[in-house]
C-alpha cells in the first residue's frame, strides 16, 4: 500500500492549518541574554518489548466495559442495523483520524499528554493536564466496577447462584422469581427480580439517597483492594510489566465472548433477540441524535482525549509505523462492539422467550445490564455457575486493561514533569506506582459505602460526560489548527519515511473538530440534571457534580494564564503570540533518575 509522498516544500504551506507555524522566534524583546542553541539531545525512554505488546495494550484499553454494556443498547435505540451506517462513517471521519493524531503526537514528542501539548502549543497545555485529571477521576471509581465483578465471581462457586431465587435474607416481599415452578403470568407490577434485589440489597446495600452515606461494605473492600493490587503489578515495572500482562488480559475476553456466543445462539429465543438487534430502522437515520450518538460512541470507545493513547505511544520506537497500529486498534474495537451486541442480544432474546415478554421489555444498559439482566439469564443455563464465572471473569479482564491504562497516564505525567523531584525521595518507579495506587484506593472507598452508588453515578456523569468534548475540542485545535496539520504530517514523515494520507489531514483540519463541536453543543442543548432510576439528586449534589467537572474544565484557562505568564514579550499580545509558538525545536526535557540524556554524537552508541 503506497502512502502519499511529497517533498516538504511541495505545496504544504498551501494547505489549511499551517499558517500558525511561523512563530519560529519569540516576538518582542527577550528577557534573557542570547544563548547558543544546544546540541540536539534525545531522552532514552523505555520502549515496548514488541510491537504486538503496544497494539494489545491499546486494544485492551479501547475494548472495555462500554463495548459490552453501552454499544449494544445504543445500536438498538438508534436504528438497529441502520445505526452501523453512521457509526462507520463517524469512525472514518473522526475516530480513526484522531487515533492517528494522538499516536503520532505521543510517538514524536515521547512525552505524556501534558508534556506533548506543552511542546506543540504552550497556550493549550492545560488541555493535556485536563485529560490527566479526567483519567484520574475515572480510575478512582472504575476499579469499583471490577470489584463488583470480583464479588460476583466469588459468589459463582456455590451449589446455587445466590441471585437465582427469592429465598434469602436480603429479599423483600416484592421479589418475584420468573423461573419458579409456582410463577404465573400475573406478575405484580411492583415486583422485583431476584437478581435486581441481589445487586441492590446484597452487593450495594443501597440506601435511600446520596445524603445517607452509610458504612463501608467490607464485602466490596476486599475485592477492591485486590483489584488495586492487580493494577499495581500490571504497571509497576512500566511498559516491561504491562507488555507481558496484556497478552492475557487483552485476549482472554475474546475467548469468553466466543464461548458465550456459541452457547447463546443455541438457546430458545436467541434468534429473536439477534433479529431485534440488527433489524434496521431506516427512518431513525433522519434523527440528528443518532449521528451524534455514533460519533460520541466512537470517541468514547477508542478513548480519544483521555491521555492513555498519547502515553502508550510515547513508549514506541521513534520509527514505528503508525498507520497499521491505528487501523488494527480501531477496526478491532469496532468489530468487538458489534460481536458483543450479538452475544448480549442472543441472551436477551432468551430472557424474553422464557419470561413471555418482548425483547424491548428486557433491554437495558450500563451496570444494570451486566449485574442484573445478564446474571438473571445465566441462572437458567445448564452448569450456570460455570457460565457465570466465565462472564464475570471476562468483565474483570475488560476492566483491568482500561484501568491500568488510565493509571499509566498519571505515572507517565508525573515522571515527565516531576521525575527528578519525585525520585529524590522515592528512588524507584515501583514506589511511585504504589503511592498513586494507595491514594486512589483510599479515594475510591466512598464508592463502596452503602450510599456509594449515588456518588458513583454522579462522578460518572460529570467527570467526563460534561467536559470531555470541551477538552477534546481544544486538544484538536491546539494540534491541527495552531501547531498545524501539515507540520504534524511532516513529523510523521520524519518518523516513518512517509506522509500520512491526505485523507487524514483533511479530517484533522475539518471534519474532526467540527464533529466534536457539534457533539459538544448537542450535549449542552440536551443537558438535564442526572437521576439514578427514580431518584432525583438534590441541588447540592448537582453542584458537587459540577465541581467535579470544573476540576478538568478549569485546567484549560489555568494553563493559558500560566503559559502567558511564562512567555517572553513586553506586551500581552507579544506574550500571546509567543505562547502559540511550538517549543519542539528548542526545548529538551530535563533528565531525572533512571533517564539518560545523550548528544547526537553519542546516539549511535546506544
Automatic annotation (TrEMBL):
Binding site for Na(+): 60, 62-63, 67, 301, 333, 398, 401-402
GO BP term, example: amino acid import across plasma membrane
Top-rank taxon, per record: Eukaryota
Membrane-spanning ranges: 54-72, 84-105, 126-154, 216-235, 247-269, 289-311, 331-353, 431-456, 462-485, 506-525, 545-565
UniProt keyword annotation of Transport present: yes
Cysteine-cysteine disulfides: 166-175
One GO molecular-function entry: amino acid:sodium symporter activity
Location of this chain's protein in the cell: Membrane
PROSITE patterns listed in its UniProt record: NA_NEUROTRAN_SYMP_1 (PS00610), NA_NEUROTRAN_SYMP_2 (PS00754), NA_NEUROTRAN_SYMP_3 (PS50267)
GO CC field: plasma membrane
Membrane topology: Multi-pass membrane protein
Keywords carried by this UniProt record: Disulfide bond, Membrane, Metal-binding, Sodium, Symport, Transmembrane, Transmembrane helix, Transport
SUPFAM superfamilies, sorted: SNF-like
Family, per entry: Belongs to the sodium:neurotransmitter symporter (SNF) (TC 2.A.22) family.
Name by which UniProt lists this protein: Transporter
Annotated source species: Lingula anatina (Brachiopod)
